[in-house]
């Protein structure tokens, strides 16, 4: 387990890591009209076609499927903003539809312990992936993480909303059971990149 000082830094980091959810768009992005939403996935169709293994060797994901919400979401690997603050996808038209995977957490799908850290953007015009996740991903929902070296399915076991200014140690867990931890901004938007809440989904491996 991490030392208390490290854990404290990580806890604070959650408020910062996704302060870019919808991040800090430029003036042209702030005023952009809502764009057409990508095609949603029929609930469970992708999963029925390709059964999930019970386990996989650790791998880095390149795509995510959110059953009933979004197919073939591209995964990107931004560097951490600071030692304890995961990076986010770009805020352009492509980036707002992507998911960021935090390599620096040191936990990958298929590892036996700890959280695979993911994040996505929420935009005020409702056009980002995070907006669709907030609308459609509930407890019991399923995610599929795939890469050249593996594939795993996860079922959402918990969806929580926390205050953006409060520490949330649970997101950064490295020693607990294997999970995906996916976070987006939520609540009320106070200004560019500033939201009052964070919504976090925890999902466990599910064959």
Mean pLDDT: 82
Question: How many beta strands in the DSSP annotation?
Answer: 8
Strand content: 25-35%
Number of helices: 4
**SS-based class:** alpha+beta
Oligomeric state of the chains present here? single chain
Low-confidence stretches: 1-13, 23-48
Could you give the order of the helices and strands?
Answer: HHHEEEEHEEEE
Q: Quick one: biggest sheet?
A: 8 strands, mixed, barrel
Overall, the morphology is globular
Helical residue percent band: 10-25%
Please list the strands of the largest sheet in the order they lie side by side: 1-2-3-4-7-8-6-5
- Integer-rounded radius of gyration: 16 Å
Structural features, described:
This protein is of the alpha+beta class and 207 residues long. Helices cover 15% and strands 31% of the residues. The chain is built from four helices and eight strands, in the order H-H-H-E-E-E-E-H-E-E-E-E. The chain has helices at residues 4-17, 27-30, 45-49, 129-136; strands spanning 63-66, 70-76, 99-101, 115-119, 142-147, 150-163, 179-191, 194-205. The chain has an eight-stranded mixed barrel with strand order 1-2-3-4-7-8-6-5. The protein is globular, with a radius of gyration of 16 Å.
């Amino acid at each position: 387990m991490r030392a208390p000082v490290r854990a404290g830094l990580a806890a604070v980091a959650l408020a910062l890591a996704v302060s870019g959810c919808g991040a800090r768009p430029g003036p042209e992005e702030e005023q952009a009209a809502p764009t057409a939403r990508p095609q949603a996935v029929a609930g469970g169709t992708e999963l029925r076609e390709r059964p999930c293994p019970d386990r996989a060797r650790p791998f880095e994901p390149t795509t995510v499927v959110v059953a009933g919400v979004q197919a073939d979401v591209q995964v990107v690997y931004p560097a951490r903003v600071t030692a304890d603050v995961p990076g986010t996808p770009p805020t352009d038209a492509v980036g707002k539809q992507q998911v960021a995977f935090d390599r620096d957490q040191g936990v990958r799908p298929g590892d036996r312990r700890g959280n695979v850290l993911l994040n996505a953007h929420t935009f005020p015009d409702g056009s980002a992936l995070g907006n669709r996740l907030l609308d459609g991903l509930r407890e019991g929902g399923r995610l599929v993480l795939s890469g050249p070296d593996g594939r795993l399915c996860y079922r959402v076991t918990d969806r929580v909303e926390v205050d953006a200014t409060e520490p949330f140690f649970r997101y950064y867990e490295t020693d607990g059971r294997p999970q995906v931890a996916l976070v987006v901004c939520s609540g009320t938007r106070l200004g560019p990149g500033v939201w009052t809440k964070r919504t976090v989904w925890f999902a466990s491996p599910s064959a």
